[in-house]
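Q: What does the assembled structure look like for these inputs?
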Amino acid sequence: MKSAILCIGTEITTGLVRDLNAYFLAFHLTSVGLFPKFILFVPDHKETIGRALQFLFEDGEIQSLFITGGLGPTQDDLTREIVAEVLGKKLCFIPEQWEKIVRFYQKIRHTQPPENNRKQAFIPEGSILLENPLGTAPGFISDFQNKKIFVIPGVPKETEYFWPILKTHLPPNDNQFYRSEMVKICGVGESQFENELQPFLSSLPDTLQTAYLPYFGEVWFYLYSYQKNPQVIQYTENVIKKIKEVWKPYLFSQWGNTLEQACGALLMEKHLTIATAESCSGGLLSHRLTNVPGSSSYFYRGYVVYSNQAKIDTIGIPSSLLSQHGAVSEEVAQALAEGVRVKSGTDIGIGITGIAGPSGGSEQKPVGLVYIGISHSQHTQVKKYLFSGDREVIKIFSTQSALTQLFLELQRGIHNER
Amino acid sequence: MKSAILCIGTEITTGLVRDLNAYFLAFHLTSVGLFPKFILFVPDHKETIGRALQFLFEDGEIQSLFITGGLGPTQDDLTREIVAEVLGKKLCFIPEQWEKIVRFYQKIRHTQPPENNRKQAFIPEGSILLENPLGTAPGFISDFQNKKIFVIPGVPKETEYFWPILKTHLPPNDNQFYRSEMVKICGVGESQFENELQPFLSSLPDTLQTAYLPYFGEVWFYLYSYQKNPQVIQYTENVIKKIKEVWKPYLFSQWGNTLEQACGALLMEKHLTIATAESCSGGLLSHRLTNVPGSSSYFYRGYVVYSNQAKIDTIGIPSSLLSQHGAVSEEVAQALAEGVRVKSGTDIGIGITGIAGPSGGSEQKPVGLVYIGISHSQHTQVKKYLFSGDREVIKIFSTQSALTQLFLELQRGIHNER
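A:
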């Protein structure tokens, strides 16, 4: 069963504000089996809103339509009027709603509401009014031919508030979106993974779909279906079993876990501790590691050694090493990783040094050159990378690669030797 | 002149991933006067993509159409084929593009590309190929009746990369969206700012619109108009002049600059240097400070002192202070700020200590309690905060507050005394 989302607001179509409502609704509608077929954004412009409504109303597959925005008290808020017009219904004044607006104003602003708030007390004839305790704009639900039309305010917090209420009014459906599986792997390219996986995906049931999503060196592989049936479940289980066998060292997540969460779980399981010494990544690695709740049990400390003096003072990098090889070198990455491990008394040390740009590059050492070292009692591994992108992208790729190296090393079996 | 944006990808319509491309394009298209009339998201589903293209092609007002996503090498990437079909053109193999993919693979992965990458070397007949140095999927530009069709990959960084190139191919137009102004202030609440600004906004011209957007303690205030005329310009100038007079110490940005960029600019202007000692924010502050190009000239180093031992070892916090007041205390924030300044030989030191949660809170010291100290040669200021939200939100608010304190202190006039 299909749904559609229509978000009304010039602030979105002009890029002033980034959408949250459609994102929220898309996720939750999918979860209850009402798959958004179209998500459409239009400016606060009468004819354009009308055209969008017409397009969505014409689509026979769409059985529920969610409209957000344009319910405010100002002149550019047109949703109420246009929806009523398209539905061929007149707007009715709801006295109780007006009293609520008056009370809301008195309570929050200690004044009477301005006269232009009055239009918020109107809804199309025959609609169900949805009370809004968070603001003055109520929502409403209308029927149109075989469709249910849900109209709610565009404030993200209010959309979130209304969702559980909307849910009780959804048309009954037997769909179950079967977010069969989503696995994330690191250290393997998207098309390499697809190529190697393809032979295992023969005779894919019709209703089961696959998707590959690259994410900064990770590959997210989805199996999903618009139907949940024994064949789909069985097939999914087989594919996941195969992935677990073949890509075990690279598989770091089933469902949403991040690479830092996967590393954290392994560090905790193995009772290992870690410290970081970052130059070009500027603290992003320690930020990511400490985003994980409970990380204080394994992450002891991080150094952001931006200047050469900081590298010398804090980790004890010999200045001769810096002058001989330069701060961005395999040798310094190794010394940072080993140094921070010893200095911090942790099992593992990570050292990152590179050139995030936009300036500071040379022919021998271009922007994007990054060395990453991982040190533990058994050995120290340094890898060289050449990333392209702007400063922030190079920082992200640096930490992605550091976490990938860490994950693969942990999978290979670093042991707690204490 | 109107444009439209079509984003293709089931990951968006199912709410797995939050859109960035349409947001980016909407902002930039608006800036050059190509107002998006529709922004449409569809899943990777052949008929649905076809239906969306038909809807947008039928609209006589839309003169340029921007399509992102679905250009990858995998089977669910359908954009290339469907666009060619709808345009009534056949796909042509571009040998130079295939050679580029081969070289890209050899350079990054040291292997030959898999055979399924070959489809990325095809574009519709008569299209202009847009080279993509960031990945294997090129973009292309096609003409269809009176419309220009721009097709680019769905990876947000690649969309950003392509924009300046697309710009050189845009149809000429005389529209001018007048984003009159956007100012950002910190250290003043949204409704306080709105209330105090209101008296200066009387007799707002009809075509000029205002918007307030709260962003983690910042307030972004917009003045914008679909028409650029002398009245709008004059009015805007007056309002901005007033804001600059009344909120000068809090105004950190006109147009997009971030708080860390504003702080960076002041540090550079005043020839001041800085170091950080972070506990609960876990490195996010140094990450943000080092996101600014050129920050290595003022940011010397950062310490992420997650464990008590790290606070003692690296900054020299007396263990008696920790046992007497606890790690999350005004005293420790002060000692961190002062200690890191002295230890690093910088003009300014920032110390952050708090409880990011979800665990670790108590009745006296709940989750969200954060102390932030800023130290310079003239004095050390510590502020206490109680944030609500999850771990990541508390980290963000901690760094927002630290940067706000820093900005306000720099505005008040910290001097370089060396």
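Chain A has a mean pLDDT of 91.
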